[in-house]
Amino acid sequence: MTAALPRFLRALDQFHASHPWDHNAHYHRWILRRLPGRFTSALDVGSGSGDLARLLASRAEAVHGIDADPAIVDRARERTAPGVPVTFSVGDALKDVPAGPYDVITCVATLHHLPLTDTLTHFRQHLAPGGTLIVIGLYRPQSLSDHLIDAVAIPSNIALAWIKNRGRRAPRPVAMTAPTRPATTAFPDIVREARRVLPGVRPRRRLFWRYTLVWKRADLVGR
After folding, report:
1. If DSSP codes are grouped into helix, strand and coil, which group holds residue 34?
2. What's the structural domain count of the chain?
3. Short-list 31, 21, 23, CA closest to 55
């Protein structure tokens, strides 16, 4: 059994290498379903190649994406058609965000690169009254339930990889050139801090090694 596990993991890696798909983009439509049909402004933190920012632009008058990776920001600009109300900039999410407030703030697979408390506080300060903050994040598995969800995600991941590729080699997600690092904060710690900074926030564990935080600025009314 012990000897079989490394072989299984190698086989899994080989399968995913030939059937790549973007776990973060999987949640983009989920994000849209939690937003109003129309809104004025949006900020996408850690915007990468701009896919989510362009989706937000289908509902917003103006969207700004910010990312620390200059190469990926250049790619985002190249992939954005003229006339789409999206701008991109290179910068630090805590120092270089253009003045808001924003009706929508999104942050996908980026929060674990940033100081948790300071970043959530910064998001709160930049969100307009009635606005919505959505975070798709990564956490460090710690509890039994974390590991069970991870185990359930493996067959689901394989099935979706096969469906999305339809038996063909799909284009790989656009690679980041900036340094990346694994998540170091456990989910209970994220939840505790998020609830302290964002009263009424809705945290959930999700498949594919992700969690979500959804918070509406109006939740502070009367508190």
Report:
1. coil
2. 1
3. 31
Cα separation, 43 vs 110, in Å, equals 13
CA distances 70 to 39, 46, 49, 64, 179, Å, are 28, 11, 11, 15, 12
pTM, 2 dp:
0.78
Reported as a single tens digit per residue, the pLDDT across 135-155 is 999 998 776 665 565 555 554
The span from the CA of 125 to the CA of 190, in Å, is 19
Residue 40, amino acid: T
Largest CA distance in the chain: 58
Q: Is residue 86 part of a domain?
A: yes
> What residue ranges of the chain have pLDDT lower than 50?
1-2, 5, 8-9, 12, 15-16, 19-21, 155, 157-162, 167, 170, 219-223
8, part of any domain: no
Q: Is 111 part of a structural domain of the chain?
A: yes
Instruction: State the CB neighbour count (10 A cutoff) for residue 117.
Output: 12
| Per-residue DSSP letter, 79 | T
The domain containing residue 205 runs over which residues? 38-139+180-218
